[in-house]
């Protein structure tokens, strides 16, 4: 086999693993939080972050997937801690929303991330885009409004948590660009995850014990009741790390634009798979709204590329 074919096969394998990890962790989150009676989104996020901390350390320090980047100062560590707290908020909010909303609608709301990113970039860095680029965000927002009206399983609290998680995710990406912008402080996403994850665990552990006080008793009981409970939790947490690792590797071996295109398609694939698995009802209005949002995201990405 030629080197070009080997490279193409390697990239295809990476993309398949990236899709599997991202969609898998989303579906397992929904299964655990809604169908298994494991109603502890904060503790679940802590499990994810614990796996990310351990596997990041093994990947970077032992397997040397990427070179280890050292935190050089206390101010840099404080910036990383700030990002970690915002990241925790986005993941916990997303997991809470999955208790109340179908995966399909969760993905529709999550697709509005570019809208919030553009808003925060404008407010925090005064970065201006071309008017055509902002115009492309209109169908992104309108599509979610339409999808909300046509969603049979709409839940206001779940919707608020999902929007908050989406906004926090966008805020984190803009904040990361501001806080770690100098050459001496830049970290690649895998090293950033290495330092963010333990901080996230330290934040989430007391939060879980205070806000989910019976989590250990209920988890042990569910573990006795459902023989695959622990396996699902372990697989789910490992997939959370795999999603981050493959995200980094796909970007490294292709391009950010390719990742963006694949991400748009991933949301649609996740919606279709979740509908087949969880049998949640969908309406024509809901599908039309989600489709409009995805098309808006695609148009936004294309406008940014052309008018930068």
TrEMBL record:
The keyword Thylakoid does not apply. GO terms for biological process: transmembrane transport. It is a multi-pass membrane protein. Keywords: Membrane, Transmembrane, Transmembrane helix. Pfam families: TPT. It comes from the Eukaryota. It is found in: Membrane. InterPro entries: EmrE-like, Sugar_P_trans_dom, TPT_transporter. Residues 11-300 form the Sugar phosphate transporter domain. GO terms for cellular component: Golgi apparatus; membrane. The keyword Plastid does not apply. The chain crosses the membrane at residues 7-28, 40-65, 77-98, 104-124, 131-148, 154-171, 192-210, 230-250, 257-278, 284-303. GO terms for molecular function: antiporter activity. This is Sugar phosphate transporter domain-containing protein. The lineage of its organism: Eukaryota, Viridiplantae, Streptophyta, Embryophyta, Tracheophyta.
